[in-house]
Design a protein that fits this description.
heterodimer; A: 122 residues; alpha+beta; three-stranded antiparallel β-sheet; 5 helices; 9 strands; 23% helix; 36% strand; B: 365 residues; six-stranded mixed β-sheet; 35% strand
C-alpha cells in the first residue's frame, strides 16, 4: 500500500501504480473555501519540485498550487472543469489534480508523512 | 497601518460564538464568513441574511441642509421626511471622495451613513466645510445591522410591522423587538431588505432576536462582496475613488437633475462637460466566457490593445460564473463589445454586459 506524503504548502502526493497522483489537502480546501475553478496544466508538461503547477480559485481569491515532486504530467482530472467543488467534497480522492511520472523517487521520502503533516497543521 | 490595533464592533463576541472566521477589514476585525461564502450568498438570495455593518460611519447632521448639500450630488431640499437618497461626496475637482446614504427619518435632522475606511476623512471634510451653518455629530455609540433577502420583510412583519410599510429608499424611527431603532428600506445586495441603526449596547440582543427566526442566517463580508458585485454596485476604493468622476463611474444618475441645472455641486463645470461630451473611460459590467475569475487589477484588452483595468471581479454564485466590473475606453462600453481579460498572462474571452448581473428585487411598492 502506498503512503500519502505532504508538503508544507498543503499538497498531497501518493504513488499510484506507475505514476504519482497529487492534489491539495482537506486542510487547504477548508482554508480556501468554495472552489469555483481549477486551472490545471497540460499533459506532457514537466515540473520541478516546488514549481507552480496549478491555480485554485475560490469565490474570493486565487491560490497557487506547487508541484510536490518533480515529474511529467501524464493525466489531469478533467472532472474538475465541470465540478470544481469536488476539491472541497473529496480533496484526497475525487478532487485529485494531476498524475505525474515520478522523476526522482527520493524526493517523496523527504516529504511529510501523516503524523508529521498533522503536527504541521496543528 | 499594520501596527494599529483593530477595532471590534459590538457584535464581535457573537460572531466568534457563531463560528465566524474573523479578518481585518478597514481597521476592524470583521467576520468574512461563517459556514461558507457560497452557502451564505445563496441563503441571502433565497431567504434572509443578517450582516454586521457597524464598522460603517453613522452621523446626525442638524442645521442648514444646504451646508451638506453643497458637498454632495443630491437635492436635499427635495428630500422629504421619511425619504433616503444614495449620493456622492465630491472633492472640489468633482472626484468621488465617498458614496453615502442620506436620509431624513424625522423632520429635524439628517442621518448619514458613510464607508468605514473613509469615515474619518469624510466627517472631517464635512465639519470643516459646514462652519457654523450645520453641526455633525458622529453616532459612534450606534451599531448598524443589515437584514437582506426576499424573506427579510416576512421576518420584520413579526418584529417591526411598522417598518414593512416602508418602500425602497424610505426611512423612519421604529420600535423593533422592544428596541428604538432607525430603519431604512435599503441595502447592498440587490435584494429587498432593511438597514437598522441601533444603540451599541442593544445591538447583540437585537441581532439575537433577528437570528432567532429560522429564516435568518448570519452572513460575512465574503458574501456581502459577491452579492454587491452581482448587483452591479460600486465598492469605494475599488470601483471608485478620488480620481474618478460620477460620469466615468456610470453614476450620473446620482447627480440630481436640479443640481445639474443649478450647476452648484463640487466640480460642476468639469462634470457637466463630461456629461455633455461623454467621458473617455467608463465603468462597465463584464462577463467572461471562461471559468477563470478575473480579479481586481486584471488588465482589459481589446484586439490586443490595453483598454482598461478590472476594479472588482470574482465568481458570481447566483450568475454561476465569473463576473467583473472595470473601466474601459468609452467607445468600448457598449454591451456586446468583445474584450480580453489577461488572467495570469493568458487572454480570456469576455464581453461587456449591462449591469446588474443578477436582477434587483428592491421593494418599490
Amino acid at each position: 500500500m502506498s503512503q500519502t506524503r505532504y508538503t508544507k504548502d498543503h499538497e498531497w502526493v501518493r504513488v499510484d501504480g506507475e505514476d504519482a497522483v497529487m492534489g491539495i489537502t482537506a486542510y487547504a480546501a477548508e482554508q480556501l473555501g468554495d472552489v469555483v475553478f481549477v486551472e490545471l496544466p497540460e499533459v506532457g508538461k514537466e515540473f520541478k519540485q516546488g514549481d507552480e503547477l496549478a491555480v485554485v480559485e475560490s469565490v474570493k481569491a486565487a491560490s497557487e498550487v506547487y508541484a510536490p515532486i518533480s515529474g511529467t504530467v501524464t493525466a489531469v482530472n478533467d472532472a474538475l472543469e465541470g465540478e470544481p467543488g469536488k476539491v472541497n467534497e473529496s480533496p484526497a480522492d475525487q478532487g485529485w489534480f494531476v498524475k505525474l511520472k515520478v522523476a526522482d523517487a527520493g524526493e517523496l521520502e523527504k516529504l511529510m508523512d501523516d503524523d508529521a503533516y498533522k503536527a504541521h497543521t496543528e | 497601518m499594520a501596527d494599529q490595533p483593530l477595532h471590534r464592533t459590538p457584535l464581535y463576541d457573537l460572531h466568534v460564538e457563531l463560528g465566524a472566521k474573523m479578518v481585518p477589514f478597514a481597521g476592524y476585525e470583521m467576520p468574512v464568513q461563517y459556514e461558507g461564502v457560497m452557502a451564505e450568498h445563496h441563503h441571502t438570495r433565497k431567504h434572509a441574511g443578517l450582516f454586521d455593518v457597524s464598522h460603517m460611519g453613522q452621523a446626525r447632521v442638524t442645521g442648514e441642509a444646504g451646508a451638506l448639500e453643497a458637498l454632495i450630488t443630491a437635492d436635499l431640499g427635495a428630500l422629504e421626511t421619511g425619504q433616503q437618497k444614495y449620493t456622492l461626496l465630491l472633492n472640489d475637482e468633482g472626484g468621488i471622495m465617498d458614496d453615502l446614504m442620506v436620509s431624513r427619518p424625522e423632520d429635524d435632522f439628517l442621518f448619514v451613513v458613510v464607508n468605514a475606511a473613509t469615515k474619518g476623512a469624510d466627517f472631517a471634510h464635512m465639519r470643516d466645510r459646514f462652519g457654523t451653518r450645520a453641526e455633525l455629530i458622529e453616532l459612534d455609540d450606534r451599531a448598524l445591522l443589515a437584514l437582506q433577502g426576499p424573506e427579510a420583510v416576512k421576518v420584520m412583519e413579526d418584529l417591526c410591522p411598522g417598518a414593512c410599510g416602508l418602500k425602497f429608499m424610505q426611512a423612519g424611527r421604529f420600535e423593533l423587538a422592544g428596541f428604538e431603532v432607525l430603519v431604512s428600506r435599503s441595502g447592498y445586495t440587490g435584494e429587498d431588505g432593511f438597514e437598522i441603526s441601533v444603540l451599541e449596547s442593544e445591538a447583540e440582543a437585537l441581532a439575537r432576536a433577528l437570528l432567532a427566526d429560522e429564516r435568518v442566517k448570519p452572513i460575512g463580508l465574503g458574501a456581502r462582496d459577491s452579492l454587491r458585485l452581482e448587483a452591479g454596485l460600486c465598492l469605494y476604493g475599488h470601483d471608485m475613488d478620488e480620481t474618478i468622476t460620477p460620469p466615468e463611474a456610470a453614476l450620473t444618475w446620482a447627480v440630481a437633475k436640479s443640481r445639474r441645472e443649478r450647476a452648484d455641486f463640487p466640480g460642476a463645470r468639469r462634470i457637466l462637460k463630461l456629461i455633455e461630451d461623454g467621458p473617455e473611460r467608463k465603468r462597465v459590467g463584464i462577463v467572461l466566457n471562461d471559468r477563470a475569475p478575473a480579479r481586481e487589477g486584471t488588465e482589459i484588452q481589446h484586439d490586443g490593445e490595453t483598454v482598461g483595468v478590472v476594479t472588482s471581479g470574482g465568481f458570481g454564485p447566483t450568475v454561476g460564473g465569473p463576473i467583473a466590473m472595470g473601466y474601459v475606453r468609452a467607445d468600448l462600453a457598449k454591451p456586446g463589445t468583445p474584450l480580453e481579460l489577461m488572467v495570469r498572462g493568458k487572454a480570456r474571452q469576455a464581453e461587456v454586459v449591462k449591469t446588474p448581473f443578477s436582477e434587483h428585487r428592491f421593494f418599490r411598492g
